[in-house]
Structure formats: C-alpha cells, structure tokens
Write a structure and sequence with these properties.
Length: 227
C-alpha cells in the first residue's frame, strides 16, 4: 500500500505518528478516563441490538430510550438526546438482541447532576416486565452507578449473563432529583448465535469432541466450558 504515500514524507510522517501516539497514550492514562475502554471496542454489541424492539417505560419523550441506545460509540459524549424520566425518577427499559449474547458489561453515560441514576437492577429474558413486576422480583444483578459525566463501563457477572437475548434495565433511583437523565447506553459482550435455534442442531454441531470442548448435561443440552 506504500505507493499511495509520498516517499519523501513517509518516514517523517511515521516518526511523527509514533511520537503523537506516545503522547496520546500518556494523556489518556493521566486524564481522559472515558478513552481507557477504547481498546475493548471489538466487543461492542451494537449491530446485534433489535432497536425497534426496545421498550422504555416512563420516558418523557417517546422514543428517546431507543435513541440513546442507538447512539453510535463516537456520539457517546453527545448531550443532544437525553432519556429523561417522566412521572418520577424511575425508568424501565427492555432491550432485545437479535440473537443470544454473553454480556460482559454495560456502558452508560449520565452526568454530574443529581438526575444521574444510582441503582440499576438487571433482569433477563423477559419481555413483559413492568414496574410492578420488577419491584417485587429479585434482580439477576444490582449495579451501583456513579455520579459522573464520564462513560462508565460497569461489568456484570458474566456467568449469570451467558445466555442473554432480552435485557431489562430498571433504573430504580438517582442522586436526589425528581427525574432521572441518561445520555448513552451501550453493551459489551460476545455474540453467540441467532435466537431460537433448535437444541438438536447445537447438539449435533458439538457432537465431535475434536471440534468443541463440550460437556453433555443430563438434559441433553450442551454446555460449553470456558476455554
């Protein structure tokens, strides 16, 4: 590909690039915490989200829940669109994935204001949850969110989220405001397969031990060991 570049300037440009990169790295490490998670972007789950299927309850502007999830990573710091709660501080959002994913973490950007959500309760693989239901159910995991304008990369217990196709996020409370505001939500994890694939097909595919390190459970389901 070198024929695209001028031979006279290529070495100089390369040196500058290396110096520049080094400076950037030092700067990132010292100051800009939101870019610390940049290297993990190959694990960003974005195309795997069924955006039209996102359901958000108690949003002040209909559709803004979907819009903040649909914000690309490059727009994560944009404050143009904000998911704001309506009647009180609680928000309930269910995000469907177009297949099964193993969730690693939730990316979220809120703010330094008291409207920043504080407690986030997660529920799995239910598309029918409302506020009454989540208030009485035990969440799969409860996360504590910070009051910050940085992007938070909040890890989940991977063993509990290894078979995720609906994720319900219950923003239960905030840092003292009447309403809650969220600017960006994203997800990191691994894409596993399309939904509702017959177990028999998965079983046949894993039947050769040389192909997969698989454990056959008593129910005939195949569980993959962590490699």
């Amino acid at each position: 590909m070198s024929h695209h570049h001028s031979h006279t300037s290529s070495n100089h440009a390369l040196e500058n690039h290396e110096d520049h990169h080094h400076d950037d790295h030092d700067h990132d490490h010292d100051h800009d915490h939101s870019s610390d998670i940049q290297p993990a972007l190959q694990s960003l789950l974005y195309k795997q989200i069924d955006f039209p299927g996102i359901v958000t309850l108690n949003e002040s502007v209909v559709g803004n829940g979907m819009r903040i999830v649909k914000k690309p990573w490059d727009n994560r710091m944009s404050v143009q669109t904000c998911l704001t709660s309506d009647a009180d501080e609680q928000i309930l959002m269910t995000v469907p994935f177009s297949g099964t994913v193993k969730l690693h973490s939730i990316l979220i950007r809120t703010s330094l204001s008291p409207s920043a959500p504080r407690t986030l309760k997660l529920f799995l693989n239910r598309e029918d949850l409302d506020f009454d239901a989540v208030s009485s159910m035990t969440p799969v995991q409860t996360l504590s969110l910070a009051q910050t304008a940085d992007v938070q990369d909040v890890p989940v217990k991977r063993a509990l989220f290894g078979n995720t196709y609906f994720l319900t996020m219950f923003f239960e409370d905030n840092y003292g405001e009447e309403t809650t505001g969220v600017y960006y939500v994203g997800f990191r994890g691994e894409w596993l397969r399309l939904n509702r694939e017959p177990v028999e097909v998965l079983y046949e595919r894993a039947a050769n031990p040389r192909d997969h390190k698989a454990i056959v459970g008593t129910g005939g389901l195949v569980e993959y060991e962590e490699l």
